[in-house]
Amino acid sequence: MSGPESRAPGPARAGDHPAAAAGSARAAELAERLAAVTTRIAAACAAAGRAADEVRLLPVTKFHPAADIAILYDLGCRAFGESREQEATAKVAELAPGFAEPVAWHMIGRLQRNKAKAVARWAHTVQSVDSERLAAALDTAASAALDAGERTAPLRVLLQVSLDTDPGRGGVEPAELPALADRIAAAPALELAGLMAIPPVDADPDSSFAVLETLHTRLQADHPGASELSAGMSGDLESAVAHGSTCVRVGTALLGTRPITSG
Ligand SMILES: *Cc1c(COP(=O)(O)O)cnc(C)c1O
To answer: Which of 33, 63, 83, 212 to mutate to test the pocket of ligand 1 (most atoms within 8 A of CB)?
Structure first.
């Protein structure tokens, strides 16, 4: 998706999302938090000598109610990240009729192959692809969704790369990246869009993001279209922006503590 996915907060306008509770205290709170996060991203870009429009904000709305997404939509957000298939599928179904403009849903959590079919119906991008088997399932599912008219464009895919040795966190080992990238680039219903990573909790984010930046540069040498680098969350987005992030995934700083913290 090209172009800005959020704009400065402004007053609610006619035609806004019916689920947004315009004028509520929550709407005011989210407007304030969005402005603060937007300012943080702009400052991080300035500090890194990058243009502010090189980095997009992906609001991570997992565990937060659909009404919050509607408020963020009214504030100009046009992309949202979700991490659980069932929760996301339900939110998309609830909210879609109220969106006057296209919204890009990003799947950012671990995904089982048996959920590929559901996700391919609504996802603009899957950021968490870390195996050939998952890629193959998504290709089949996206192809079927295209044939059925449930989607109009190939499914954008980011490869999730592991920056530690803990297999529980997901992500492909760096050594396996080139083969998986080639597999996705050759899949007719998938579009290889770039790289995503979650740095290990106990590591210095700067060194993790530096490794990630190098991997991304190498990937782009073979796949110039894979220009997206999804890196940075509430606590470390400045470091990620300094290391080439084009998409920061922000939950807590934008929406507050998640109502449910497991998963
Ligand atoms: C939850 C989540 C985020 C958001 O994390 P915050 O620290 O709340 O900003 C980002 N990326 C992924 C993959 C997540 O699961």
So the answer is: 83
